[in-house]
What does this fold into?
Amino acid sequence: MPADNKIQSYAHVVVLDAATHTVRAASSNLQDITGAAAGAMVGWAATDLFPQDILDGLPANRDRRVPLPQRIGSDGPVDWGHRQIIPFFDQDVIVLEIEPYLQNQLGSLDREVALNDITKGLLEASDSNELLNMVCQKLAAYLKFNRVIAYQFEDNGAGLVRNEYNDGRLPAMLNLRFRASDFPDEGYKLHERETVLNFAISSIPFATVQGDLGAGTHSVNYYLGCRTPYPIFEQFMVESAFKTLLSIAIIVDGKPWGMLFGHAIPETRLDYQLRTFAHLIGTLTGQNITYRLLEEMRQRLLSSDVVRSTLRERIAGASTLRKGLLGTDPSLLEYVTPSSGAALLVEDKFAVLGITPPKHEVLELAVWCRQASGTEDLFVTNCLEKQYGSEHLRELASGILFLPLNASRSEWIIWFRPELVEEIIYGSSDNNQQETGEARYVSVTESRRGYALAWSMAQIRAARDLQAFVRDVVMERYTHLRRVNQQLKTAYAEMEDFSYMVSHDLRAPLRGIDGFAEILLEDYGTGIGEGGKEIIQTIQYNAARMNQFIADILELSRVGRAKLIINDISVADLVADTLRDVNQQMGLAAELTVQQPMPPIRGDRDQLAVVFRQLISNAIKYSGTRKKAEIVIGFRPAAAGARFGEFFICDNGIGIETQHQQRVFGMFNRLVTQEDYAGNGVGLAIVRRIIKRHHGDIRIESNPDQGVTFLFHTDLPAPIFEKTS
It folds into this structure.
């Protein structure tokens, strides 16, 4: 709306100096009230126009966000009739809007009841479409409009009539589209500042506000209820044969998301109170739309959360960023869907997924996108040819989402969408094609070319999330993590060397302790009493236990130091060999079942033999107190949705309580006494170290006194020689 200082003819405006309460400006139609020309009133004292009690009440409005109207009548220096004053404080001036007070103008409308009715409808609506349909119907019923529409803006400034209530006296507008030029930027500004405007076409021309408005210009043109509409709106009313327009902005996230428009055939005025009612309806509608949009976005995020988290895990775990991005299940095309193709330049290597333009076209487009995105963190459009001049790319790249992955924008991803040809019914003709004198607002069917499906805010946010993850978690920390990883490998190797050296060197003094104790018994046994002999034997026993501890530590160290020779190994042969060894060492006093068939297991034969030997030995040991000890060795296929089947060794022994099932894999952690069950508590630590080196996992299923089942798997690639870790 041009800043022309005009107002609708039904109202009057007086601009007072805030300090002196003298008139600085007045509307030209005040002459109808005062008999004096507007220019002549400049310099009048406010008391020449208003009673003192009205002026005394003005300061109470200075700090109010919503003006409080004051009634004014025939008492005083001027006969105002049945009107009210709405004051607006704007820096050094007070702008007084004076309008007819139209109580019950639309019948016995109880605004509180109506507001409660609409509020309940907003809460009960199942979705945004039902919500807007209800609001249109209620506004038409309560404010006596023949047609009420809900109009949603699109990213390019155009819009769509997505909901309508119509009593049949005006043509239907549902699903009509309007062009960006039908709602210019000034229209946005008009409704960002004051969201409600009521305008009725009158035979009386607009009044002008004359004099020095100063800062009051802002209020006159953007806040007063009697401000004039943008001329295009008036043209629409004239061509559509209705006299009254009500516009209510639906504000979402601080910006107009759409509009509620009421159209009435007769001339209808809404006073300040009814405009406030309309304001509340707009606010409540905007809040509920915001909530529902957020809820819809939340549901979309939940449904795509698996895709995003899986992609992130893959990127974080991949040896290079490029491998992480180019993986499948999910692919980048599933991350921003629907996309027909994607291209990326990462680590100086170009790659594509799906259907994309040729490589040279993509690289040229990326250079342009880096410039076109300016200071933004990405570039997105659903009509590339309007900006890039790429009509030849319509079929492949009418829509693009360009996502830089680093600060220099030298690495990036571009998602593509093809052209979506649509037959669109516009509610207005194209300005560029309109002949002079022709009606602007006529239905026109056009074939829209060069546009792709628009990118949603949720998709743009998902792209930004990926960008932040790659920048913050992967690229910026990659060098640091690689350095730390190398340091850890060095420290681990040094720790293994130290552990091996110390364990080896500790055995010499232990042999000395045991040897001298034996000499003491042999050479001086006759002079030592029975109590002394028991002490020496205790020393020998503990030296032997210490020697076994050292042997176990050396065994654990060897597990980490040994090179792995990876093959696919027959589990049946491995179990048979293990059972033969165990039988020779401790005997098989249990009923043992080996289920067949079993698949091969991939790994190092010697180390996996240790796994089976330790687990089978434990099963024999801890089921030995049963009248009938039972052990089962077998394979459990992968459950639905699981990646791996598991080998298992099950016994009917003493079992393990749930809270201790992880603890038993620690070094020297034992849940039973040495007297009850022999052992040092190292075997399961060795088993877990071996399984982890095979990129697998081991777990326990057990309850106390109900036996225990150890389940494990490996996850290694095709047979290779692994370097010492």
